[in-house]
Amino acid sequence: MKFLKGKKAALFFILFVIILPVFSFAQGEITTTLENPLSADTLFCFLKDMLDVFLTIGVIIAVIFMVYAGFLYVTARGNDTQLGKAKTAFLGAVIGTAIIMGVWVLAKAIVGTINAIRAPAAAIIITACP
């Protein structure tokens, strides 16, 4: 009985594999098109849009952390451990802001390098993004 079940399963699998391509040819032509839901048409424009969002959020967070560090500095009232904590928080906020701003400079440098290496007709045009 187990042998018969195994044969049935194998026969079903073989027929399934043979008949499955018939279903994929059921419709001759695909007439629907996909519309781009993004405002960016190229990968570069998409990455530029993502970088703009990252910079906007990053600058807001950096300002919040600088205000927090200032609050810690004001509320330390001469306590050396609290002053050290406030200075560390402010230094971290400044370093984070420098990294966030450095991302845009790095992106500009990469695009400039690619444009210098490529032929003028294949250069990346930064102002082409909407």
Automatic annotation (TrEMBL):
It comes from the Bacteria. It holds the Pfam family T4SS_pilin. This is Uncharacterized protein. Keywords: Membrane, Transmembrane, Transmembrane helix. The chain crosses the membrane at residues 50-76, 88-107.
